[in-house]
Amino acid sequence: MQSKIPCALGSSLVLLLLCAACRGIPGPRTARIAAGGNQTCMVDSGAVTCWGKNNVGQLGDGTNEDRNSPVPVTVVAEKIAAIAVGYIHACVLTEAGEIYCWGSQPAEQVRFGSDSPFTALAVGATHTCGLTSTGGMKCWGSNAMGGLGDGTTEDRLSPVEVTGLSTEVTSIAAGLDFSCAVKGGGVQCWGANETGQLGTGSYESAAVPAAVPGLESDVTAVAAGVLHACAQKTDGEIWCWGENTAGALGDGTNQNSPTPVKVINLEGDIQSVVVGGSHTCALTKAGGVKCWGGNSAGQLGDGTTTDRNAPVDVAGLSIGVAAIAAGGGHTCAVLTTGAVKCWGLNENGQLGNGSNQDASSPVDVRMP
Rounded distance, CA 354 to CA 244, Å? Predict the structure, then answer.
């Protein structure tokens, strides 16, 4: 069902993800990559390409045809600073501080601005958020569970300020009907909370930001997925909370947790963390990739389809990775050489290798 909300299109499915931490870290030729529910997009030297599911125009190529290899996206003639992908929409952030989004209306892009330029963006299932240059956070889109953080459950067609987050915000994330932010080194979350994905110690939803106990300081980044979230601390440790039946929290158990638990066997060796549908991945300081959680389609990349409740190495990617992104059931990486590899679910061509066959270890994306 389409929503009337531009750039945050309605769907009750929970295959999505994407979040701020699913944006790529700048790699060779300023390459940035983002993975959504069943699609992937990339910015490379100013050119935007996407591949995968396209039933409502989320690839931005002017069609509704799925693509199993990258196709060019027609975007604004401005320099692109970042990209984020949701389940049925995607957005780019320009260097001028504006956000452009596309989705269920493939011939139309919607522009969002702010009194202060946006400096980062995060895309959730049915909503979008931006971080302003003054350290404030604004969100727009669907708001039935309070995921916009403005104290209401009213959908918003344009950006509204998140309550209490007008300054000092340094990292933002958007998941399925919930959002998170780092303010002053501490994590706050709001929105839906049925599996404890807000990390507040309860299972009660919240329409305004609530502090995450145990993560009041020293947090550098936060990432949100479908029903779980994770934070990275200054010492490189990763802490996660929420849904854990497939092991996405990485604490060696399969028990949901409404409070943060430490991911085991990482030893503070982490550059960044990304959160997918039911899995999580981290980029090590050595340029390697480790993943944990759901693995039914091979999205952990270890050559199996066995779920893991603790980190495992992605096959063949122990060094040389510059950026990673996690989608609903797939994962991608940009190498320092400029090559792009993906693995996991591929029913809509989201691995970009010219096929629709799942892969339990990395395969090469057919870059144009």
Answer: 33
Please state, in angstroms and rounded to a whole number, the distance separating the CA atoms of residues 42 and 215.
32
Q: Which residues contact 125 (CB under 8 A, 6 or more apart)?
A: 11, 14, 16, 17, 86, 87, 142, 175, 176, 177, 226
Confidence of residue 106 (pLDDT cuts 50, 70, 90): low
Give me the DSSP letters along 254-308: ---EEEEEEPSS-TT-EEEEEE-SSEEEEEETTS-EEEEE--TTSTT-SSS---E
230: pLDDT strictly greater than 50: yes
Kindly state the average pLDDT of the residues 210-228.
98
Quote the CA–CA distance of 169 and 182 in Å, as a whole number: 6
Q: Please say if the pLDDT value at position 19 is more than 70.
A: no
CATH number of the domain enclosing 110: 2.130.10.30
> What confidence score (pLDDT) does residue 4 get?
28
Residue 14 lies in a domain: no
Residue 5, in any domain of the structure:
no
Please give the Cα distance from 225 to 239 (Å, whole number).
14
